[in-house]
Predict the 3D structure of the following.
Amino acid sequence: QVQLVESGGGSVQAGGSLEVSCLASTRIASIHCMGWFRQAPGKEREGVAYIYENNVHGYADSVKGRFTISRDDAKNTVTLRMNALKPEDTAMYYCAAARSATSRPLSGSAYNDWGQGTQVTVSS
């Protein structure tokens, strides 16, 4: 099992930027895929971004062009940089690790381990 701890987040006005990070308890180079998900109150969990061990990455259409996912294998950290934030980006953001191969990296069912989440709030 991989322990994941998110940090960052917070509150910002629309148009602003925030960064959330995820520290893994093991070498992320050995993890097939790392992902970021979010869930707003009353809404389903949504896959936001993912990055494979070979650095291939992708995004949900709702954040494409605004969010950037990156990884630092030396620090066992995955970071999500969020720019041009909108009120609809408000949610709890979760980091997740997929230890097995997956072709659906934006699906929560592909992931084995989850962090506790960090809140992002965007005001209009």
Notes: The mean pLDDT is 97. DSSP finds no helices and eleven strands in the chain.
